[in-house]
Design brief:
Helix content is 52%, strand content 0%. The protein has 229 residues and is mainly α. Helix 7 runs antiparallel to helix 8, helix 8 runs parallel beside helix 10 and helix 9 packs parallel to helix 11. The chain starts with 6 loop residues before the first helix and ends with a helix.
């Protein structure tokens, strides 16, 4: 069995269009042009956020790419700003123009501490995001961001959500990973949490079948111990 092709080509084939847009962080020019809450978020200025919020500034204002101040804080890795925005009433469920929420942005950035802060501030690990109708957990599993995967599992992320490519987090960890240490730990975390190891893709190939075809011996062993077929 030949391994499935890499993600962008496969996505284009299955969706019948070009590759889906990746996350788009604010450019330096955008950051320089920001004003008010977006500017405060970009520079991690909690005092300014609180002052602007108290004065009635709109916490969920959008920039030209649909990013709220919270999205900007997350893209910049500013946990203090993110916590302050959430405490002031910012909505963590809003999606930017690429359909990513704050938690999925943090997951793709491999920022487990930000994921933890967002969840503690009221964000959800259950949102359906991106043009692939995925989740933050699927995005993190795809990239082998094992620490983020564990944070999302602790937050109750849906383990067996199937995106519109027909893949779960476990399938993505195998199909789109490299079989290395972080993807192995991602698979271990999903299996230990009770992810269904036998959900197959649209071609009927299970995670175990994909792992065997790629020669991922450590992942094969983990899946077999978990009762994979």
């Amino acid at each position: 069995m030949r391994p499935i092709r890499r993600p962008l080509l496969l996505a284009a084939m299955l969706l019948g269009s070009g590759p889906a847009p990746a996350q788009v962080p604010p450019t330096p020019a955008e950051v320089a042009a920001y004003r008010d809450l977006h500017a405060a978020a970009a520079r991690d200025d909690a005092d300014a956020i609180r002052r602007l919020a108290a004065a009635g500034a709109y916490l969920n204002a959008r920039d030209g790419n649909g990013r709220t101040p919270l999205h900007v804080a997350v893209f910049q890795g500013h946990r203090t700003a993110a916590r302050t925005l959430l405490a002031s009433g910012a909505d963590p469920a809003l999606l930017d123009s690429q359909r990513y929420d704050a938690v999925t942005i943090a997951a793709v950035r491999d920022d487990a501490a930000m994921v933890e802060a967002l969840i503690a501030g009221g964000a959800s690990a259950n949102l359906v995001t991106s043009v692939y109708d995925g989740t933050a957990l699927i995005a993190a599993a795809h990239l082998g961001h094992d620490g983020v995967v564990r944070e999302l599992i602790r937050a109750g992320a849906p383990l067996d959500h199937v995106n519109n490519l027909g893949w779960t987090a476990l399938l993505e960890a195998v199909i789109l990973g490299q079989g290395g240490g972080r993807h192995q730990e991602t698979v271990r975390a999903l299996v230990d949490a009770g992810a269904d190891v036998n959900i197959a893709d649209r071609q009927g190939v299970t995670p175990l079948g994909h792992a065997r075809s790629r020669g991922y011996a450590a992942i094969v062993e983990m899946l077999e111990r978990a009762g994979a077929r």
